[in-house]
Amino acid sequence: MRDKERGFMEVKRKNPGYVDKEQRIKNYNQVEKNLSDEGIKQQAARCMDCGIPFCFGSGCTVANLIPEINDCVYHDKWEEAYHLLMAGCSFPEFTGQICPALCEGSCTLGLNDDSVSFRQIERAVIEKAYEMGYVRAKPPEFRLEEKIAVIGSGPAGLSIADALNKKGYNVTVFERAEKPGGLLQYGIPNFKLEKNVVERRIDIMKEEGIKFEANVNAGTDVSTKYLQERFDIIALAGGARQPRDLSVPGRELDGVHFALDFLTQQTQRVLGQKVTGEDILATGKKVVVIGGGDTGSDCIGTSNRQGAESVLQLEILPKPPEGRTGTNPWPQWPVQFKETSSHAEGCERRWCVTTKEIIGKDGKVTGLKCADIEWEKDENGRFNMKEIKEFDVEADLILLAMGFVGPGPNGIVANLEIELDPRGNIKRDDKHMTSADGVFVAGDMSRGASLVVHAIADGKAAADDIAEYLSK
Ligand SMILES: Cc1cc2nc3c(=O)[nH]c(=O)nc-3n(C[C@H](O)[C@H](O)[C@H](O)COP(=O)(O)OP(=O)(O)OC[C@H]3O[C@@H](n4cnc5c(N)ncnc54)[C@H](O)[C@@H]3O)c2cc1C
């Protein structure tokens, strides 16, 4: 092992890489590889122990104690590293796997070198902790009287449940899907996050005393009145599940689907569950994914695994720059071009493209009428779209991955007549309380579609606010 004082000067960043492309598209197994323990220690040695750790203060939403954890790993103190890690993030096995690593965007070393690969280190610490048996159920030492109903079991709901259970409250999580986990379970594909990782954590939470009621739509399968009478607090964590639609002629044609329906079905197949609705499959098809973000990328990986003939991804915005620009300085999150493992598996990508019409024959989609565009700034500084040239694209499956516009219709929200904010999300005060007394909200349902790490942090903060409310 190298001298840690000179770590970053001597050791280069090393990413573990991915399973070979030809191999990985044959199955839905995790694609990212791991470094050896020694490799991880070398990477931890690159942490500079800088005076002000921006990774912790500016980047990481859950405020992981990154320099301290890196130091422990470097000195082979894995158990101590694990305890430090859990002080920040309740579910490092999720963030270590799929967080975009906001911390790495603000790592001081990233100013003039490659940042420290903390996501890999986080993943190694938590997986080592499971392997060594450090991760054990720790039910609270005492139980309080109050009962909490958490609606939704995504990272926000899990985070609320975990934090309140640790404080001694009686927590029941209601989930309308077959298995708990929210988008961690149905949405994010197995090749990014294997579902046994989610289930392993939920089993521990159950052992710690949290009750999970899956296949229960709160407000419909159990009445809102029942929940109000039975529980002291209702905490909403239902996510932002309403997809942005494409209002162009031909939208109604057979073969146009929302990305999340397509992705959820594939997870159901992998888990051996009954598929919801009619099969949406890319097998042998010319697939067009509309939307250039992470959800779109997950559709590409899934389409290739299903054996699509071709995959084209269209994005309305310009191609991001290859590196930081002057208006996006460190320690801000770098908004730059990214090629995901799914892109690398094979697809065509086009930017600055708008969809004008979906075309079809006999009720079935056959293609799209698109146009190349340019973005022009007007005198008020607003960007306007200018069409350059029309073109047609062949397609027999179109997946809409253009983001989410809010929670959408939800029985319990309607029954409680909870106010929405101007963007259609659940309105809340600065203590996570909705317009209904004793009803709290966290995660995408009030922040808008975001990231797992934000949902975890928000859930934890909401739990603190709920405990404060109950203690009054
Ligand atoms: C395809 C896709 C890929 C993504 N990839 C990443 C990634 O790689 N990294 C990352 O950081 N983020 C990613 N995200 C974003 C991330 O998954 C979300 O920000 C996060 O899951 C939000 O957590 P949440 O708990 O607020 O909501 P969700 O995870 O959406 O969970 C909400 C849960 O509430 C349940 N529910 C809603 N209403 C009710 C009700 N009335 N009764 C019972 N249950 C109810 C829903 O069924 C759902 O299970 C991705 C998102 C998508 C769509």
Topology, please?
Blueprint: H1 7-10, H2 21-24, H3 37-44, H4 54-59, H5 66-74, H6 78-88, H7 92-98, H8 102-105, H9 118-132, E1 147-151, H10 155-166, E2 170-174, H11 195-207, E3 211-213, H12 224-230, E4 233-236, E5 256-258, H13 259-270, E6 286-290, H14 294-306, E7 310-314, H15 341-344, E8 348-350, E9 353-361, E10 364-377, E11 383-394, E12 397-400, H16 411-415, E13 439-441, H17 444-447, H18 452-471
Parallel strand pairs: 1-2, 1-4, 2-3, 4-13, 5-12, 6-7, 6-12, 7-8
Antiparallel strand pairs: 9-10, 10-11
The structure holds flavin-adenine dinucleotide.
Name the features.
binds flavin-adenine dinucleotide; Fumarate Reductase Iron-sulfur Protein, Chain B, domain 2; 18 helices; FAD/NAD(P)-binding domain; 5-stranded parallel β-sheet; alpha/beta; about 475 residues
Structural class: alpha/beta
Coarse shape: globular
In whole angstroms, how far apart are the ends?
A: 54 Å
What would CATH call the class of the largest domain?
A: Alpha Beta
| CATH superfamily (homologous) name of the largest domain | FAD/NAD(P)-binding domain
Number of strands: 13
> Largest sheet at a glance?
5 strands, parallel
Per CATH, which architecture of the largest domain?
3-Layer(bba) Sandwich
Percentage of residues in DSSP E strands = 15-25%
Question: How many distinct folded domains?
Answer: 3
CATH topology of the largest domain: FAD/NAD(P)-binding domain
- Whole-number radius of gyration? 23 Å
Give the ligands present. Answer: flavin-adenine dinucleotide
Strand order of the largest sheet: 3-2-1-4-13
* Number of helices, where a helix is a run of at least 4 consecutive DSSP H or I residues: 18
The whole-number mean of residue pLDDT values reads 96
Which stretches of 5+ consecutive residues score pLDDT under 50?
A: none
